Amino acid sequence: MSSALISAREEASKSEYSSAEEKYLSIIQSPETLDVPQNKIVQEQEAAILELGKIYETTKQVEKISDLIDQSKTVLGGSFAKSKTAKIIKTLIEYIDEVPESIDLSIKVTENCIEWAIESKLTFLRQSLQLKLASSFYQKQQYQQGLKIITELLREYKKLDDKSSLVEVQLLESQIYHALRNIPKSRAALTSARTSANSIYCPTLLQAELDCQSGILNAEDKDYKTAFSYFFESFEGFNSQDDHRAIVVLKYMLLTKIMLNLIDDVNLILNNKNVVKYQSRDIDAMKSISLAYSNRSLKDFENSLTTYAHELKSDSIIKSHFNELYDNLLEQNLLKIIESYSTVELSHISKTIGLSLSQVEGKLSQMILDKIFYGVLDQGNGWLIIYDKPRKDATYEGALDLVKNLSNVVDLLYEKASSLN
């Protein structure tokens, strides 16, 4: 190891980043060559690039990471192996991703690196970066651009029979279609991904992502028991690798139990030794919602949504299911209020439940149309008139059955008469 690299690492460890940056750049641009084998020079340049990139990530200087990638292309295009080149470029882009609100720069840098990979005929790197770009488009909610890239990658990987890469592309395809609310296509893409995964060794984190997506799609079908089992497997995978996504999947596990109204199970999960370390505002938010739902308290539910707005509304999956949960709770509260009346003033319902008159009228109208109860809104007088559930008259159904049976008898008699002739 050269003295320059040792010195740069010492400066970095002391958080003297300016002097460390100068020494790392000198190693990258003009490494010590005196009596040093070429492979050692390459190793030191690789270490210098990655360690300098880490410094820029730590100091949140994403523009400098972009510049470092541009500077490194000359070095990487020389004596570096293709696999090592791909690793360095992808790692530097990941450093950009780690800095908050840097998605636009990440997309721009990735697109530039794809062009460079095409010029340098680095096919594997180009494909890997295209998958990364599609994932960035998914995060930025530019779904059509992501799908366009995925379609081309699927064609290439199927031609190469690259099952490992196919799994990642098909999983991303499933996630994008789910975000577009095209559940059938999302499910089809996930089935293809799991089929491809079954024929290869699937890394733990990738398997955890597959299980998480399976849980999400089962939750869409309101099959929360199956969804929980998938989320549990996913959580085990992420937790075993100390991945930050474990807490997200833990929230989904709690979500399924809340949707099933199994509040005792929520407490059991939270007392598990593998879960205790994830205690945070995210988990407090889920506990607050579960308590409000178990108490059938619409006010507590709304307070929880307000207090933990970021934790509950930043995740689209949790937000959509909690909207459904809120609707169910609102319906139950409204039914409880009106069950003892035949006619009731809308203003009384509004005051009792603590919602505006327009909200109450809208929800009651929807419930009447969905036949949750039978009634009519008399908006002129501001009343809700409730009817008894209409009884079915069995006479009509009996008459139809009789006519049908007589028709069958006539047909049989006609057939027998025809045979006699």
UniProtKB/TrEMBL annotation:
Residues covered by the PCI domain = 223-391
Q: Which UniProt keywords apply?
A: Proteasome
Cited SUPFAM superfamilies: Winged helix' DNA-binding domain (SSF46785)
Record Pfam families: PCI, RPN6_C_helix, RPN6_N
Report whether Cell membrane shows up as a keyword of the record.
no
Instruction: Kindly give the InterPro entries that the UniProt entry links to this protein.
Output: 26S_Proteasome/COP9_Components, PCI_dom, Rpn6_C_helix, Rpn6_N, WH_DNA-bd_sf
Source species, domain of life: Eukaryota
Identify one Gene Ontology CC term for this UniProt entry.
Answer: proteasome regulatory particle, lid subcomplex
For the keyword Transmembrane helix, the answer is no
Q: Which family does it belong to?
A: Belongs to the proteasome subunit S9 family.
Name recorded for this polypeptide: 26S proteasome regulatory subunit Rpn6p
Which taxonomic lineage is given here?
Eukaryota, Fungi, Dikarya, Ascomycota, Saccharomycotina
